[in-house]
Specification:
The longest helix is centred in the N-terminal third of the chain and has 8 residues. The chain is an alpha+beta fold. It is globular and about 45 Å long. Strand 4 and strand 5 form a beta hairpin. 43% of the residues are buried. It has five helices and eight strands. The protein binds a DNA duplex through strand 3, strand 4 and helix 5.
Length: 228
DNA sequence: CGTTCGATGCACT
DNA sequence: GTGCATCGAACGT
């Protein structure tokens, strides 16, 4: 039996073929990499959310298979990218065996490569001021914009990023690798921006990390200004 | 500091 | 026609 050859450095299929909460936890500290004709960008994953199965009311698969959520029903280790709020693309990694719809939404990264390219893609604020490093990939919509991830990356095979995941001559290569970054201390809490299923604590984030999205959480009983 | 609200496209009922 | 797995400008305190 010849195991399918993956990209050297890319996490193997077996990493994704596990319970989704385990995959979510283990993604913290791993590095998302995207190569495009414009250059390469990369960032350490610091915040994710799990969406698990048809019984999870916040999961796109909650009302059964559709054309949009089809990638979630496919084999693990592929990207599921979709368009949201008429403005943003969001990227998930598909987990668990084919037939079991589940995925992990990537919500925030600590940028480590291609920061200039990220800044170009993000643009400037109204006053023309450049974004701070920590804001480049903070939030799921900002992350995809900075990384250049869009519809062309939907269904991309993260374990063989040069393969058929690329669409229409788009030479994008997307994968996740382990660079030996020590896994950060993480905490779990309710997922952000959803109504149904808000009771499930399936958001996993690096505690106290400046690149994590959402309102800054200051330590209990500490009224000092949070400065990052 | 906090909260509100408009932009904007598409999947789904 | 409705409702988003969002973002950030604008406004109130």
């Amino acid at each position: 039996m010849t195991p399918a050859r993956g990209r050297p450095g890319a996490l193997p299929r077996a990493f994704y073929d596990r319970p989704t909460l385990d995959v979510a936890r283990d993604l913290a500290g791993k590095v998302l990499v995207h190569e495009t004709p414009d250059g390469r960008t990369a960032g350490v994953i610091v915040e994710v959310e799990a969406y698990i199965g048809e019984t999870d009311p916040a999961c796109h698969a909650s009302s059964g298979p559709t054309r949009r959520n089809e990638p979630m029903y496919g084999p693990p280790g592929h990207a599921y990218v979709y368009f949201n709020y008429g403005i943003h693309f969001l990227v998930n990694v598909v987990t668990e065996a084919a037939g079991t719809p589940a995925a992990v939404l990537l919500r925030a990264l600590e940028p480590v490569e291609g920061l200039d390219l990220m800044r170009r893609r993000r643009g400037t604020r109204r006053g023309g001021e450049a974004l701070a490093d920590r804001d480049l990939c903070r939030g799921p919509g900002n992350l995809t914009r900075a990384m250049g991830i869009g519809p062309g990356e939907n269904r991309a095979d993260l374990t063989r990023p040069a393969g058929r995941g690329a669409v229409g001559g788009h030479v994008a290569r997307l994968w996740i690798e382990d660079r030996g970054v020590k896994a950060p201390p993480v905490a779990w809490g309710p997922r952000i921006g959803i109504r149904a299923g808000a009771d499930r604590p399936w958001r996993c984030y690096a505690v106290g990390h400046a690149c994590v999205s959402g309102p800054p959480v200051r330590p209990r009983g500490d009224a000092r200004r949070v400065r990052r």
